[in-house]
Amino acid sequence: MTFLGTGGARFMIISQVLASGGIWMNLGGNEILLDPGPGCIVQSTRRQLKADRLNAIIVSHRHLDHSGDVNVMVEAMTDGGHRQHGYFFAPADALGPEPVLFSYLKKSLDGIEVLEEKKSYQIGDVTFTTPVRHTHPVETYGMVFQTPRHTFAYIADTLFFKEIVEHYQAEMLIINTLFTEPRFYGGDRRLPIEHLAVPDAAYIISTLKPKTAILTHFGMTMWQAKPKEIAERLSQDTGIKVISATDGMKFDFAELDG
Ligand SMILES: [Zn+2]
């Protein structure tokens, strides 16, 4: 698994202080791209990751930092549209009016599948489920992946909600942690900005007790607060290995077998 970016939200994306290319996974030869934000094509080609080997592209939700490079990555996955190949997964509202995927690319794909709450999907010998709709301004799902050898979950953008911990039991957790502390529009506590913050991640990790947790998708204040130090503090507080992802970082699933 390669992190092609660890930045999230507007100011991080437009400045590219941290990249925003999503996550490239190779699961026993099954290659899957998750949330290809702006720069994915640059970040992947410079690391010799070959898009024509991708089996699928998954978008958790239509926000630009998760979908900006969808079209170019579908073109790359299908050899410039010349080879019908690969699957595209996204929530209905990313495919409806103003879709994230240009219509001319649809015929190049083997299929488009709509993500819905509590559904299960198959990519080769990898299964993933979308257990719960997230609390976020657009239709958003996280995923629990099951490979022949491992389980891991991707907790995409969401406001914290108590039941979240009932849905993401896995050996490894990836948590999009945008903020150091919960934030509110105009400072009004009735108007939360719908993202996870460090205390939410701490609660999720200490409740679900994965073998490893990886924090990513950092906003500007999170980056300024040094994610590495935050992850070290969370490791100490929870007794669980917490890693802060860095641009280009690779995670080897064999680490979960140790
Ligand atoms: Zn979002």
Low-confidence spans: none
Mean pLDDT: 97
Oligomer: single chain
N/C terminus separation: 17 Å
So what's the overall shape? globular
The amount of helix comes to 10-25%
How many E-type strands? Answer: 14
Largest beta-sheet details:
8 strands, mixed
Listed once per kind, the bound small molecules are: zinc ion
| Rg, Cα atoms, Å | 17 Å
What is the string of SSEs from the N terminus onward?
EHEEHEHHEHEEEEEEEHEHHE
Strand content: 25-35%
Number of helices in the DSSP assignment = 8
Essential attributes:
alpha/beta; 14 strands; 22% helix; globular
In short:
It contains eight helices and 14 strands. The longest helix has 12 residues. The protein is globular, with a radius of gyration of 17 Å.
What can you tell me about this protein's structure?
With 258 residues, the chain is of the alpha/beta class. The protein has eight helices and 14 strands. Strands 7, 8, 9, 10, 11, 12, 13 and 14 form an eight-stranded mixed beta sheet that branches. Strands 1-2-3-4-5-6 form a six-stranded mixed beta sheet. Helix 6 packs parallel to helix 8 (227-238). The two termini are 17 Å apart. The chain binds zinc ion. Zinc ion binds next to loops.
Summarize the topology.
Layout: E1 2-5, H1 10-15, E2 20-27, E3 30-34, H2 40-45, E4 54-58, H3 64-67, H4 70-77, E5 87-91, H5 92-95, E6 111-115, E7 119-123, E8 126-130, E9 143-146, E10 151-155, E11 172-179, E12 196-197, H6 198-208, E13 212-216, H7 220-224, H8 227-238, E14 241-244
Parallel strand pairs: 3-4, 4-5, 5-6, 10-11, 11-12, 11-13, 13-14
Antiparallel strand pairs: 1-2, 2-3, 7-8, 8-9, 9-10
Helix pairs in contact: 6-8
Bound molecules: zinc ion.
Zinc ion binds at residues 61, 63, 136, 157.
